[in-house]
Predict the 3D structure of the following.
Amino acid sequence: MLIEQYIKTIPKAELHLHIEGTFEPDLMFKIAKRNNIQIKYSTVEEIKSAYSFNNLQEFLDIYFAGASVLITEQDFYDLTWAYLHKAKEQNIVHAEIFFDPQTHTEQGIAFETVISGIYNALKDGQERLGISFKLILCFLRHLDESAAFKTMEEALSFKDWIDGFGLDSTEIGNPPGKFEGVFAKAKQEGFLTTAHAGEEGPAQYIWDSLNLLRVNRIDHGNRCLDDEDLVKLLAEKQIPLTLCPLSNLELKVIKNMKDYPLLKMMEAGVLVTINSDDPAYFGGYLNENYLAVAKALNLSQEQILQLAKNSFKSSWLSDEEKIKVYTILESHKLNT
């Protein structure tokens, strides 16, 4: 079986997916028109051509501009539902979704509007498409911790809907320690946590995420390879990294996919997973990310299978749920 077909066939979990980052140009144009919002693009093609960046900040600028057209609960539902249909096509059976409420509440949109649209779509996706989910609220690190605490207070009214908290947005100049207090509060409330670290920021940000924020998982984490002791710790404790190949390529974290550090990490025993990050902006959903690294690094079916297993091992599913998936994945060993 060809690697491309194998990737399509195998069940996968996605653990690093920003729902606002799945905003395809045609849907953005449709929702902007529905809400009578003037955007600076007159056609879908103009929006597509604007999806071009040289670094994280340039991407965030267009990302936040796009998110500004999301106003109603239906908008957030439609955004999430569109991703879930794509996930179903790509044989994603479990998704752990990031959302950035501060992006919207800063524009005067009610927290309840944001989370209700997203959560209701995820529930429908579970019932109608068979995709299980976890919902992760991310704090925007370019804002201050007091803003994060305010968002935390709003979120606690929806505690049963939220599985964990994360940290994203502009990494440089916004170290993890800036949010030590609000992450301690999240832990106290019983939530799991994760943080973007070591994408553009240094390996020290990964250390700080582990030691100060006490996160369960690291999002990106590329720069761990700059620190041998950190790599050893990640491998020994099996702390997952949620890698995003096409994102790293588009944002110039790497120059060429052949330079991708995936195999170095796997050889060092680090628990790595493949994810799409913001697929509408970075040229590919989960399968395209798997295929890009598979082709560039000449991955075997056995290595693809291991990455799929890692995606479930690194997830926040229960041990019982993971065992069920492992049993299904074992049947995919035949295609070697």
Summary: The radius of gyration is 19 Å. The chain has one domain: 3-334.
